[in-house]
Structures are given as C-alpha cells and as structure tokens.
Amino acid sequence: MKVDIKNVLPFVSWESIAGLQSKIDANYQNLVQKTGKGNDFLGWVDLPCDISSGLLQSIRKDAEQIAQMAEVYVVIGIGGSYLGARAVIEALQHNFAFLKPQKMPLVIYAGQNLCENYLTDLLEVLDQKEYAMTVISKSGTTTEPAIAFRILKQHIEKKYGKAEAQKRIIAVTDQSKGALKTLADTEGYKSYVIPDDVGGRYSVLTPVGLLPIAAAGFDIEKLVEGAKNMRNILMRSSDIKENPACLYAATRYALYQEGKTNEIMVNYLPCLHYITEWWKQLYGESEGKENKGIFPAGVSFTTDLHSMGQYIQDGLRNIFETVLSIEKNKHTINIPVDSANSDGLNFLSSKTMGYVNHQAEAGTTLAHVDGKVPNIRISLPELNEFTLGELLYFYEFACGLSAYFLDINPFDQPGVEHYKKNMFALLEKPGYEKEHQDLIERMK
Ligand code: PA5
Question: Which of 153, 197, 286, 369 could form a disulfide bond with 410, CB atoms 3.0-4.6 angstroms apart?
Fold first, then answer.
C-alpha cells in the first residue's frame, strides 16, 4: 500500500507537512501508549495480534454451518455494527452476487434503516428462502436493529419453529450488558462478544465484521494477517517519511489548516462503494466534534463525474480528494475492434477497459489539481482479503492520529444521542414526557 501526496504539494508545502512531525509524534505516542483521549477504547490498536486462532476457528465453523442451512444470511446492525462487514464483502464478492447461484449464502442487511417497505420486501423474500441471521449491537439497545430483530425473530420462529430458529440465530454484543445480551442468554442463542475496549466503528476485526465476512465465504485469516502486517509497518516509526498513516494524517491536517474542510474519498470501482461508506462513518463520527473536523464525503468515479464532477472541478474551493486506487484488476476486458467504427472508438481497440479507467483517473486527478483540488492517492496493488485488512487498519490508525490533532476524543459519539432523545420523546417512550411536550410545542 502506498500514499502519494505529490498532488498536494502545489497547495501545501512539504515543509509545512513535515513541520507537523512533532505533533504527529505526540499523537502517535498517545495511540500506541494508550495515553490519549478516549484511551479506554484503544483495544483495536492491538486487535490484529490479539485475535486468537480459537476465535477465528469458531467463526469459520459457524460460517460453514450457516452455509449448510441457509441460502441467505441476514446481518442486522447499524453504523459500525454492519458497515465494516459490508465494505469487505462488497469489495470482494461478485458484482452481481444477488443474481448468481453460489456456494456460500448471500449476505443481506437489515436494521440499518427504519423503512417498512424495505423490511416488508425482505420478509417477502425470506418467505421463499432458507435463511439464518446474526444480530449485532454493542450497546444492545439501538432502536433500528432492535426493531428489525423483533420482527425477523417472529418471522424465523414462525417459519422454522422456535427450536430450529434458535440454531439459526447468532448474537454479537457486549459481554455482560444491554438488552440484546439478556435476550441472547434467555433464548439460548450462540453469541460472540465485542470487546469492551473496541468501539463500533473500530470493530470490523472482531466478530462484528469477521462473522459476516466468513459467512460470505471470504478468508478472515488473510484479512487479519493483512491488518497485522500493516500494524507491524505502522509500529516501526512515526516518521512521516516511513509511516503511511502518519503521512496521511499530517497531510489531511495541513490541508484542513489551509481551509480544505471537506475530504472526498474517490474510487474508480463500484465494488468500493461500501469501503467509502465505512470510511465516512469512521472519520465523520471520530472527528466531527466540538465544532471541528473535516467533513468526509464520497464519490464513485467515473459514474459521479457525470453528477458531482462539475462541483469538484469548479465549485467552492474548500475540498480535497483522496483517491483509493487499485493497481491491478481481477478481470481484464479488451475493447474489441469494430469494422464499422461508427462510434469512433477503434483507437482504443488494443486497450483494456482497466487501462481506460486508469487514464480516466490520471486525467481527472490533473484536471482537479488544475481546479485547485489537492489530491492524495492511496494505492493498493490489488483487492483481496490481505490488502483490505491492511487498508482497514491503516484507515483506523490514521483516523486516531487525525482526531488527536484536533484535541478531541475520537472514540465517543455524543452528538448521535441528540436525535435519539428527540425520537424517543416524540415516540412517547416512558421517561421522556417533558421532552415530548417541549417538542410538540416547538413543532406547532
Ligand atoms: O461507532 C459507533 O459506536 C456507532 O456507529 C455504532 O456502531 C452504532 O451506533 C451502532 O451501535 P450498536 O452496535 O450499539 O447498536
């Protein structure tokens, strides 16, 4: 994996980025020595080394059992409790997995919205399919997955009977607290623990991510190995010339100081869409606090060049781009010769689509640099479990470093509570009577 900042240097000098080295050193020590803000949630730093082979084996065994009993595997969770798994699965699976018969179950998602059309359609599909499910919630009290689970639990029990349903449900939650833990214990579900010191958006390398990823048929050992390899690289030194996470974090902060307050994560492969979604949550929820933080956005090119390209090229100049570039594709398609050449594309006939895509990337980067959009390029040699494991750990580590520049706690999310409080008040949850009245007054 490489981080290339040459297209940032026309906007921010190397000297200003390198001038942040002492701050990066301090942020780095705060992460690795676990002395920084929110240090009771730094378990993810050592996670790649701490995962036991017993845990991986148990997850793999469950994945095999799920494959035997289910064509569809429903993952119920929201935010950090589903985005990491979805990011890895969608990056690696067939682009049309939902149309293709496969050995492993198709993983689908619930509990990440409150849309009754979505759940009605899902139940209709599940009437026709053999399925199993996992419900994931660290707090065990999050409304969206709890409602979805209540409904799906009734469906699965009706379809298979209570005893068989019990074998088809796995819970992933806190070791000792929360409604989901109580429910899992009462109902006798197999359950996996999310470690106390790992928060939701940093939990992809716990059973939260590993179980669905294994159930989809991907190699979780390789994913963890990749993360471990990146950890080894990052643990060697905090020198921005050697440590890609330190370089990325320092460059982002230097840009932020220059008024570049919006970062757009760019990909050129549609299968990376959920990597961007996961990254958006990681950075948005970790950095956006105390009226500070870079706003994380995402686009998929070249698709979005035909929707967002205009703004990026010419709009308000408070943005920078980070391109996640994959050097080598899994498949190659040659553009064929056409004897009529009525589309005029024969000049491409000896080329592959991947070549065209890479030229689109190079041309777009230079156009945007001309339009005063600084560009960071993160490149992976190819997409597989190992490189994704490296990438996830890299992003997590750089996120912790970045948030410490802002002197905030990267591991809490106090702002998320506000909407929940209002929703409960409007729904007349017991205990919210006064807030209910206040909101009703405000809404008049
Ligand atoms: O990063 C986080 O902590 C959050 O995004 C959570 O993952 C999300 O709110 C879901 O929480 P829970 O797993 O407790 O249901």
Answer: 286
